[in-house]
Amino acid sequence: MITGAHVIVYSTAAEADRAFLLELLGTRHVDAGGGWLIAALPPAEIAVHPTDGAPQQELHLMCDDIDTTVADLTARGVTFEGGVRDQGWGLWTSIQLPSGGTVGLYQPRHPIAAGPID
User: Fold this and answer.
1) Continuous segment of H or E residues that includes residue 3
2) CA–CA separation, 31 vs 26, rounded Å?
3) Max CA-CA distance within the chain?
4) Contact 102, 96 (CB under 8 A)
5) What residues form DSSP beta bridges with 103?
6) Residue ranges of the chain with pLDDT lower than 50?
7) Closest-CA residue to 11 (of 81, 59, 61)
8) Nearest-angstrom CA–CA distance, 111 and 102
9) pLDDT value at position 116?
């Protein structure tokens, strides 16, 4: 039985991005050995979208109120790439990582599948 998901973010500044995400998420974390910190994620979902291009993966964090979340994170020093945009399926923005990479943040309008597996 599948018991969870493990997301890997490849980074040119792994230590800085790792520290940033630990602070951003505020969840527990473990040291897998040798300083390899792994943070717990909130409940997660997976979706598969069609593409005419090369297969790819993306990471998007979800929130209940994007305006409040963006304001809170901005006050904590988080930088966003562009403003909040209405994508139809939800309100979306992009969090800037210290390495220059990005992680999506959105307030979904669709039903949420995330939560304990029955």
Assistant:
1) none
2) 15
3) 43
4) yes
5) 95
6) none
7) 59
8) 25
9) 55
